Amino acid sequence: MLKNTVMVINFKTDFGGVYMYYAINKLQELRDCAIKELKQGKNEFLKTKLELDRAISCLEFCMEHDLFSDNKEKYSVLELPLPEGTGYFSDYRIVDDCETEDKEFWRELKFEGKKVFLSSGDIIIKRE
User: Fold this and answer.
1) Which residues contact 10 (CB under 8 A, 6 or more apart)?
2) Which H, E and C letters describe 110-122, residue by residue?
3) Could you tell me the CA-to-CA distances from 53 to 31, 36, 46, 48, 60 in Å, in that order?
4) What pLDDT, in 10s, does the model give residues 42-100?
5) What is the four-CA torsion angle of 25, 26, 28, 29, rounded to 10 degrees?
6) 33-42, 43-52, 119-128: which range is least confident on average?
7) Which of 2, 52, 117, 125 is the most buried (most CB within 10 A)?
8) How far apart (Å, rounded) are the C-alpha atoms in residues 43 and 37?
């Protein structure tokens, strides 16, 4: 059933400022087909269903954080490296420098009341 499914997407109109509802709905339709196949005992569709779950989650994450909603917007991704010369258990911190080089006035970023600590392997997505 899934092998014969054809999806036609007009990228110029379907994604322009509409976020990703169309794509998510199409993936959910394919996921529903995979679930039907699984219910009929066709276990080979489990991998397909799991891949569709992952794709839907990724697009929902992008929508939730307003990523890629504008076709012109560019992003850079930074994967934090191992800290140099400080050991493997060091953390990165995000600070508001309050427009001064005097570290006494710097404030660490807090999220939900807790300081944000980043480690090697964490990623930062930056809008350009």
Assistant:
1) none
2) EECCEECEECCCC
3) 7, 15, 10, 9, 11
4) 999 999 999 999 999 999 888 887 777 666 678 888 999 887 776 667 888 899 999 99
5) 120
6) 119-128
7) 52
8) 8
